[in-house]
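can u do me a favor
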């Protein structure tokens, strides 16, 4: 694959970053304009990514004139937690996955995890 080309998953991540950083729902042209200026993505490519994200239930959309404006359904943190749950659910042995995950945490992250487990977290 060409080094300048991104896989659809990477493009979805870039589009989600734009939507998470926005203060309001964005139409496809606005998303395209806010993406990295060095990425000359076609409008249709951005539109395809937004439609796929909507079909997956990751973004919501509302009419904005003749177009749709998109916004994330969940915050970055909520989305990350959901993905972590999906990955954990895909494993055969939760205890092994959790042990390896905890072993990879920094001391600060481990302290945050302890607070969350004890009910003192966010």
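np, heres the sequence
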């Amino acid at each position: 694959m060409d080094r300048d080309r991104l896989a659809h998953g990477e493009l979805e991540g870039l589009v989600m970053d734009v939507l998470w950083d926005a203060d309001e729902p964005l139409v496809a042209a606005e998303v395209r304009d806010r993406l990295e200026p060095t990425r000359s993505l076609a409008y249709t490519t951005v539109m395809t990514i937004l439609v796929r994200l909507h079909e997956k239930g990751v973004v919501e959309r509302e009419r904005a004139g003749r177009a749709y404006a998109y916004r994330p359904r969940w915050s970055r943190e909520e989305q990350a937690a959901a993905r972590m749950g999906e990955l954990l659910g895909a494993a055969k042995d939760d205890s092994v996955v959790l042990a390896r995950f905890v072993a990879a945490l920094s001391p600060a992250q481990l302290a945050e995890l302890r607070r969350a487990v004890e009910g003192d977290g966010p």
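DSSP finds six helices and three strands in the chain. hope that helps!!
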